[in-house]
């Protein structure tokens, strides 16, 4: 059952955000997570300055975070706010365990991975989106604040784990496999003509205006 801290903070966020974010919270709670595959696809298609490796690492971190989150949810059952009468089930969500938040775990894993890889602009965008998703899902009675914090913690830990030296060969192998599949399926044809998969800006020819 939720702690008194969870109940108090939930009441504050639910009472404030339910009015302030009413026009946006359903879309934020359900659809902002779609930024994750869009960002990862963009990183792969751009294929420059290590973006592909960063994207693959972020994808693996998201998968690991989702697996850990699912395992914790299976082992530790916590009712969702709408299940104990604290809110309406606006999202028509299944009455399963609230702890932790899968959405936030995945988004935090990708955000942290891109931040670790130096993609700070994209990471900031995803960080803001993750915060909006967390607040919206609390406001809509799907999660308690602790669920959001736990999900974010799982995501960050998953991304940090995948940056360990012992896993670098595995990540490099996955990148090679993905690039092979990308080439065979013709996806690399959408790349700019002066960009080859995995190349960096310093490797590209410098175009100068001819007199």
TrEMBL record:
Positions of the Phosphatidic acid phosphatase type 2/haloperoxidase domain: 54-163
Q: Where is this region: Disordered?
A: 192-211
**What's in the keyword line of the UniProt record?**
Membrane, Transmembrane, Transmembrane helix
Gene Ontology cellular-component annotations: plasma membrane
Residues annotated as transmembrane = 28-46, 58-77, 97-116, 123-142, 148-166
Under the heading InterPro entries, the entry gives:
PAP2/HPO, PAP2/HPO_sf, UPP_Pase
Source domain of life is Bacteria
SMART domains (UniProt xref): acidPPc
Q: Name one Pfam family in it.
A: PAP2
Q: From the UniProt record, which GO molecular function terms apply?
A: undecaprenyl-diphosphatase activity
| Record protein name field | Undecaprenyl-diphosphatase
């Amino acid at each position: 059952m939720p702690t008194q801290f969870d109940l108090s903070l939930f009441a504050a966020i639910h009472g404030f955000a339910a009015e302030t974010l009413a026009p946006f919270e359903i879309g934020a709670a359900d659809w902002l997570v779609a930024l994750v595959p869009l960002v990862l696809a963009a990183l792969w298609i751009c294929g420059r300055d290590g973006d592909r490796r960063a994207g693959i690492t972020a994808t693996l971190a998201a998968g690991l975070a989702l697996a850990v989150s699912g395992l914790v949810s299976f082992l530790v059952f916590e009712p969702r706010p709408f299940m104990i009468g604290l809110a309406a089930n606006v999202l028509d969500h299944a009455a399963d365990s609230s702890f932790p938040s899968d959405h936030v775990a995945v988004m935090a894993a990708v955000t942290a991975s891109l931040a670790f890889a130096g993609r700070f602009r994209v990471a900031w965008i995803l960080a803001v989106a993750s915060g909006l998703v967390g607040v919206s899902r609390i406001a809509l009675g799907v999660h308690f604040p602790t669920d959001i914090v736990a999900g974010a913690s799982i995501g960050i830990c998953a991304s940090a784990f995948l940056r360990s030296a012992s896993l670098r060969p595995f990540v490099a192998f996955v990148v090679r496999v993905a690039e092979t599949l990308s080439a065979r399926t013709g996806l690399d044809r959408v790349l700019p003509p002066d960009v080859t998969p995995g190349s960096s800006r310093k490797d590209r020819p410098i175009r100068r205006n001819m007199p």
